[in-house]
Amino acid sequence: MARAIRFDEYGDVEVLRVEDVPRPVPGPGQVLVEVRAAGINPGEAAIRRGLLHSRYPATFPSGQGSDFAGVVASLGEDVSDIAVGDEVIGFVDTRSSHAEFVVAEAANLTPRPEGVPWEVAGSLFVAGTTAYAAVGAVCPREGETVVVSGAAGGVGSLAVQLAKLAGATVIGLAGEANHDWLRELGVIPVSHGEGVLERIREAAPSGVHAFVDTFGSGYVELALHLGIHPGRIDTIIDFAAAEKYNVKTDANAAGASADVLRELGLLLDKGLLTLPIARVYPLDEVRDAYRELERRHTRGKIVLRP
Fold first, then answer.
1. Full 3-state SS string of the chain
2. For residues 174 and 148, is the Cβ–Cβ distance under 8 A?
3. Residue 56, pLDDT score
4. How many Cβ atoms from other residues are within 10 Å of residue 59's Cβ?
5. pLDDT of 227-236, one tens digit each?
6. Separation between Cα atoms, residue 279 and residue 242, nearest integer Å
7. What is the pTM of this model?
8. Are 173 and 188 in contact (CB under 8 A)?
9. Do 249 and 94 meet the contact criterion of CB atoms below 8 Å apart?
10. Lowest-confidence range among 81-85, 215-219, 257-261, 293-297?
11. What is the pLDDT at residue 300?
12. Residue 217: what pLDDT?
């Protein structure tokens, strides 16, 4: 047996429980991984609450989680380029990584670089590939200015860095508590809230060329007020505004591959990218982990350690 997170109905964090389940068995082309760390994400909270039922319906009893990093415990048939004992970063689309063991497709794994801590590796996939796709969608160029909302969150903290690596000047929208940290990254911090449009214009007197929205709450409209072309606005959360204004919604699905995960891992290993970890919770405290996540004020990622 092995422990895993389960829930039987849509609801608040109280529906989550830790349950003993049969230890999963890998099939052809699959690998069983003993999980060392697994990130949690806002999308998982929205699915659990039933807010994305029309797009991502749950089948009960449901597990949770896409991100993970761990050690290969056993192999299914037809797996030849991975060995038991290998340390890997990976992902699943079966909502099952918040557990002691997870079965993943071998094609969805990449080696964990030695310099990438378990907590960072285990929370990299969703935030990392989402940031990668969103920044790629708005095509930042040398000398241009890009704004990122939610700039200290899991996705935003990586998006500002990827835009900087592309050569852009980056304005990060965040609370005052995160301004010094953003400055350390070479990002221009701007406070969110009333008057943000004027503050952005003051920080970018030559104009803004692109906008990555990781927060919602009217930022698509704000980007349009800044005069940004809809084709250079990407939101990962405000799908209604995206449909209304014909802006992009490139996110995790657009970047979800082991190749992207490998590239991000190498950038972290070389010190060209950093992923802050807000807090690590044991599996038994999954409810507390999601309570903190859903307050939407953390810097970087919240992680579960089975």
1. CEEEEEECCCCCHHHCEEEEECCCCCCCCEEEEEEEEEECCHHHHHHHCCCCCCCCCCCCCECCCCEEEEEEEEECCCCCCCCCCCEEEEECCCCCCCECEEEEEHHHEEECCCCCCHHHHHCCHHHHHHHHHHHHHHCCCCCCEEEEECCCEHHHHHHHHHHHHCCCEEEEECCHHHHHHHHHCCCEEECCCCCHHHHHHHHCCCCCCEEEECCCCCHHHHHHHCCCCHHHEEECCCHHHHHHHCCECCCHHHHCCHHHHHHHHHHHHCCCCCCCEEEEEEHHHHHHHHHHHHCCCCCEEEEEEC
2. no
3. 87
4. 7
5. 999 999 999 9
6. 32
7. 0.94
8. no
9. no
10. 293-297
11. 87
12. 87
Please report where in the chains the tokens 């919770």 appear, as a residue: 281
Neighbours of 40 (CB within 10 A): 28
Quick one: average pLDDT of 133-151? Answer: 96
Tens of pLDDT along 39-78?
A: 999 999 999 999 989 888 999 999 999 999 999 999 999 9
Q: Would you state the structure tokens that stand for residue 192, as one six-digit string?
A: 């969110």
Task: Say whether pLDDT at 118 is over 90.
Answer: yes
Phi-psi category of residue 27: left, alpha or beta, with phi > 0 → left and psi -120 to 50 → alpha: beta
How far is the C-alpha of 297 from the C-alpha of 291, rounded, in Å?
Answer: 11
Token representation of residue 249? 């919604």
Residue type, 85: G
Torsion of CA 110, 113, 116, 117, to 10 degrees: 80
Give me the amino acid identity at 283.
L
Amino acid at 172: G
